[in-house]
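2024-03-11 09:14:02 DEBUG pipeline.ingest accepted 1 chain
2024-03-11 09:14:02 DEBUG pipeline.ingest length=109
2024-03-11 09:14:03 DEBUG pipeline.predict start
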Amino acid sequence: MKGGYEGALRAYLTSVKKYPDWNFHFVDTYAYTELGDYDQALAHLTQLRDQGWIWQWVEDNDGASVFPSIVTLRIEPMWDPLHTDSRFEALALRLGLPSSGISNRAKTN
């Protein structure tokens, strides 16, 4: 694929728009995060929250698996690049997650 990893992410984001019933919207958000487009990533996370996205369940051969979701924002490594953004902290607090203190530490250092 032309463009390596970044090209693959951009191709994914272009192609997934053709499938509005696609159930793995966190992948779109992760792709934007990986591309460094934090504005889009945070906009998608907010949209997912507004749509009531809490758990992402998928049946596999071994039973149900839980995928990253709004409630795993603080602990799922895929969201780590967003943790120091004040918009991320505000979103997490609106979801009722405890404060991480990261934004406060960043302001005082």
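2024-03-11 09:14:41 DEBUG pipeline.report The helical segments are 4-16, 25-34, 38-50, 86-94, 102-108.
2024-03-11 09:14:41 DEBUG pipeline.predict end
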